[in-house]
Task: structure prediction
Amino acid sequence: MKRQPVKVVRTVADLRKVVVGWRKSGEKVALIPTMGALHDGHLQLVRTAQKRARRTVTSIFVNPAQFAPHEDLARYPRDEAGDLAKLKTVDCDLVWAPGPAEMYPEGFATRVVPAGAAEGLETDYRPHFFGGVATVCCKLFTQVGPEFAMFGEKDYQQLQVVKQMVADLNLPLKIIGVPTIREKDGLAMSSRNKYLDESQRRIAPAIQRAIKRLADECAALGVALTSARIAKLAEAARAEIAAAGFDTVDYVEVRDAVTLKPVDGKSGRPMRVLAAAWLGKTRLIDNVAV
Ligand code: AMP
Result:
């Protein structure tokens, strides 16, 4: 059977008409929030969603509220035609692509302010970021009204922040985390990888190698993993990333996998290694489980 083009809606009213129709037929809905410039990581979220829900809605919205004035909002890659072609290959049912005026109409004045998992890590470098993410996700959830929303582990702190918001505000949906899809050399797929030139692209997988090694070292130490050992091992991983050719390393941290607070081996809690570093003007983030 020939695949149909994916239907696109651009107003909340049109979105609701489609979703209400599905609801009437008893069909479950999963939302995949994205900023477009789609790659196989995003498509994996759609495929995973289809295992849980009959209907999938992918939102494409480059959210101005999560970019600071000096960040890359203007040059963030946009390719709606390419995105629609990719979504057609995985049979996504609907694309929700509002313009900025539909999402933030004149007079818009309410913001979700996340704390807890939002404290530290990314927030130390991008203080505006999770407020923008939480606000837009809250709106997307109430606009679409899905049973499930899919988020990549690639943006691990974001996944924990969204889970916390959904629990704290009793939002009636379940957040599903999806493992990171990587290139063959280990680099996490990201829309921002398009910014890398050839030599930066060769350096980029070093971030994943360094945090993987750090995670293995932490796992091997077990209960002998003290905060002092973590600090030393993390410093070595930072040095490894810098030596590979990254220009600035924002952080390399070992944290509690749920609260994202500092941990040690004695806590017996699941841990996560998270890192962010710059190659020229491009900031890459990555994380792995311990
Ligand atoms: P973005 O368009 O970058 O805002 O990402 C939209 C969603 O796709 C987020 O939940 C991301 O975590 C997820 N995502 C991005 N890259 C990947 C990847 N390589 N593997 C899995 N999920 C990803």
About this structure: The longest strand covers residues 248-256. The mean pLDDT is 96. The chain has two domains: 7-178, 191-289.
